[in-house]
Design brief:
Strand content: under 5%
Strand order of the largest sheet: 1-2
Number of domains: 1
Distance between the termini: 40 Å
Shape: globular
Radius of gyration: 14 Å
Helix content: 40-55%
Largest sheet: 2 strands, antiparallel
Structural class: mainly alpha
C-alpha cells in the first residue's frame, strides 16, 4: 500500500478516530499524536500511571486533552492500573511496537508522523 499524498484534514481525522474497525490502541495513539506535541516513541514508552485517572491529561502538568482524546484514552486504560499505556494482546500484556503502529497507520494511508505534524497545524496557538 502506498501512503496517500492527500492532506489529513480534520474531517478525515474524525473519520479515522470513529472507525471501530481500527483497534482503540491505535485510535488513542493517533488522537494523542494529533492533540499533543509528544513524539511517537515517547508516547509508546508511557505507562498507565502516566495517564491521569480521569483520562484528561498525560503526565502531571501537561495541557488537558480534548474530549475525543480523553474518551479514547479512558477506553484504552479501562480498569488497568499498571503496565504499558499502549498495550496489546488478549490481556493487554505487551507494548504496542513502533512497527505495529506504523503498519496500521500505513494501512489507513497515513504516515504516522503526519498525525502529529498535521494536528499541530490545527491546534489552537498558545500565546
Amino acid at each position: 500500500m502506498t501512503i496517500t499524498a492527500d492532506p489529513l484534514t480534520p474531517d478525515r481525522f474524525d473519520a479515522l478516530l470513529t472507525d471501530a474497525t481500527v483497534p482503540v490502541v491505535h485510535r488513542a495513539l493517533w488522537a494523542l499524536l494529533w492533540e499533543t506535541d509528544i513524539r511517537v516513541l515517547d508516547l509508546l514508552a508511557l505507562d498507565v500511571t502516566d495517564a491521569a485517572p480521569d483520562g484528561r491529561r498525560i503526565r502531571p502538568g501537561a495541557p488537558p486533552l480534548g474530549p475525543r482524546a480523553a474518551a479514547l484514552l479512558a477506553e484504552l486504560v479501562g480498569a488497568r492500573e499498571s503496565g504499558p499505556l499502549f498495550a496489546v494482546g488478549r490481556a493487554a500484556e505487551r507494548l504496542l511496537t513502533w512497527e505495529e503502529a506504523v503498519r496500521v497507520a500505513t494501512g489507513r494511508g497515513l504516515a504516522i508522523h503526519t498525525l502529529r505534524a498535521t494536528g499541530k497545524a490545527y491546534r489552537p496557538r498558545e500565546d
